[in-house]
Amino acid sequence: MHFKIGLCQLSVTPDKERNIKHAKKAIEEAAQRGAQLVLLPEIWNSPYSNDSFPVYAEDIDAGGDASPSTAMLSEVASHLKITIVGGSIPERFGDKLYNTCCVFGSDGKLKAKHRKIHLFDIDIPGKITFMESKTLTAGETPTVVDTDVGRIGIGIYYDIRFTELAMIYAARGAHLICYPGAFNMTTGPLHWELSQRARAMDNQLYVATCSPARDPGAGYVAWGHSTLVGPFGEVLATIEHEEDIIIAEIDYSILEQRREPIVSSTCFMEFAYSIMLSDHSNGLLVIKIQGKSSLHETTTGRSLQAGRHAEVQLSLM
């Protein structure tokens, strides 16, 4: 399969109605330029702040007037006959708030909803302090969705730092992982591109990211640099921090070309540890990291002794 993807790096303002109209215009431009899949930024309809999340949150399940942002995405996807990975917006569900990405098919129907699993809590003295957990609730479910443009795994911002999530997506046959993300000016220059290339290279698949455009006057300043990375970890397309739209090509036939000479999934088990991913009837996927020899973590002083293992459990329901 060969198609074009559009990454819409949008400016975000306190005017929600303006943000929705602006996003619609960008999606339409990307489609006009040939994009069959369009990716929006993290929190594109609201300022990125704990004060704003409750004010701008929408009831996605109710739809219609209760969720004007997703109503627009559904309408545009159906009208243009494209797939939209709708960045993320604050979602209100009962008495909880989530950072949520909605995926709409070319028929305009909601195909998947991913709630950010790993909340962004950071405190670097003199640099940045932000605690999403003050207002948001963490999601519990990895999201893989079949679309007209292949099988896509979804992560949001901080989810990209956790290789286990990307491994689950690769194990479940994803061709591409989309990460809408608003990395900041402290960690962005150090880790944004590095994380994308690592997830793509480790799992031999495509990674697409989309950031808001940088606004130096905002309370939270995004790094920008929306990017498409290929299955060898190569940067295929990227932009700087200004508002812009990337149109780039994805060719899934390259996945097998890249995987054939370096079959990391089979070689992996022959090293000093093994990772076993298994589905369970209770909806949990368990990742077991089994030590075959002493493995030392010098940064923490801990070690994984032979015959011992660690487990990570994630809901698949």
From TrEMBL:
Q: Which Gene3D superfamilies match?
A: Carbon-nitrogen hydrolase
- Keyword entries, A-Z: Hydrolase
Q: Which domain of life is it from?
A: Eukaryota
Note the InterPro entries from the entry: C-N_Hydrolase, C-N_Hydrolase_sf, Nit1/2_C-N_Hydrolase
Among its keywords, does the record have Hydrolase?
yes
SUPFAM superfamilies with a match to the protein in the record: Carbon-nitrogen hydrolase
Q: Does the keyword field hold Hydrolase?
A: yes
Domain called CN hydrolase: residue spans: 3-252
> What Pfam families does this protein's entry cite?
CN_hydrolase (PF00795)
Can you say what this protein is called?
CN hydrolase domain-containing protein
